Amino acid sequence: MNISIIGTGYVGLVQGACFADTGNYVICMDIDEKKIASLKKGIMPIYEPGLEEMVSRNVNASRLEFTTNLKLAVERSSIIFLCLPTPPQDDGSANLSQVLSVAETIAKYVIEEKIVVSKSTVPVGTCEKLRSIFRKQAKHPVEVVSNPEFLKEGAAVQDSLKPDRIVIGSRNKKTIETLMELYEPFVRTGNPIIVMDERSAEMTKYAANSFLATKISYMNELALLCEKVGADINFIRKGIGSDPRIGSQFLFPGVGYGGSCFPKDVKALIKTSQEYDFELKILKAVDEVNARQKKVLFRKLQSYYDGELEGKSVAVWGLAFKPQTDDMREAPSIEIISALLSAGAKVRAHDPIANENAKKIFGNSIEYFENPYEALKGADALLVVTEWNEFRRPDFEKIKSLMKRAVIFDGRNIYEPKVVREYGIEYFGIGRI
Question: Is 261 one of the catalytic residues?
Answer without folding.
Answer: yes
